[in-house]
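User: For documentation purposes, I need each entry recorded in a consistent format: the amino acid sequence on its own, followed directly by the corresponding structure tokens. There are two entries in this batch. Please keep commentary to a minimum and don't merge the entries.

Assistant: Recorded as requested. Entry 1:
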Amino acid sequence: MPESRFNRDYFSTNTYEKVSFQKYSQYWFSNRFYAMLARRYAEKGGCALEIGCGLGHLADQLGDDFRVNGVDINPWALQQAQRSMPEVHFGVGSAESLPFQSNSLDLVISKHVVEHLQHPDMAILEACRVLKPNGILILSTPNLDSLLKPLKGKKWIGYQDPTHISLKGPSAWLDLLEQAGMEMIRIFSDGFWDVPYVPVLPAVMQKFLFGAPGGIQALLGIPFLPPRWGESVIFIARKLRGITCKTPQS
């Protein structure tokens, strides 16, 4: 995707800059949850990469436990991130061609990136390539199989961003991950947070009724929601030993 589509205006209108480092916001808890997953499944002290790091909010929460790198295609966002977190190594880079050596990273996180890419299969191959054997990939993307998606229709959250050009069902993502040489550890969802779902109940009540399971999961940092019980599907996978991942150019 062209860098110009992910400029300052994009970050301002997609909650990133507005919530910034506001503690205990929904966005803050989301990043906290991913950091908890990283600590649960990856080796602490290892070298981590966030693909599509934006303003660096998740990288900030990873910093106490990992040697963190962040790549993004937007120089403006990286400048803001580097200013706030000088200890993190941020750099311009594409998910489809990562500026890292093969077998060099212990953890890769790709949080809502692949749906923006024309060639998400290349991004998955690249994540596999840069991971060490037994390295961990955490990948999330909008969930086309969400149970409540039919209630939202065209207003479903996954359809609201015009840069979402590669929406797929969980089984299609699973195929790409396995073809790249990744072994699944967990597949789960993030809960129903895109309220309202029904017109007869106040949105505040729906946020509690529909959002409670996802909120509990985020607080505990323990994934337990079935893959269809949320607006995003999240994969935690391990790179198999003996796998030589192809590069996008091969």
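Entry 2:
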Amino acid sequence: MATILQAVNQYGPKPELKPTAQLDKLAEWMAMRTGINKSEAMMVFQETSEVILYFCKDGQPVKIPGVGIFTPSMNRNGDLAINFRADVALKNGINTPSAYQGVIANKERIGWTNQQYKEAWDADHPEDPLVIPSDGQIN
């Protein structure tokens, strides 16, 4: 039995991602906007990674205004990780109307109901019908 998450992953709207912007391109853009030279911008980006790691290794979360908070965490096996929580301004910046300039796959399916996902899934996967929980929650 398929889940609603499987159907949303297959049929739901999602941004079509371009290749990842690498350090060279980021530094070029920052240099153009700030007046610092490209090599200085590259150094700032590289050192940002080091400073986050330094303070998180010491048990200290790192807050970068406009970017977010990096917090050390540990799972029950003792494995350490760094969690990231995006700054509200950053989240709002991409989620304002018409802010996103990229291509959205399946854009016409924005707002589909669970029933519409079920119909699409069941038509393509009759051997594995989608089961929607009776409470309507996504599992």
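Summary note for entry 2:
The chain has one domain: 19-122.
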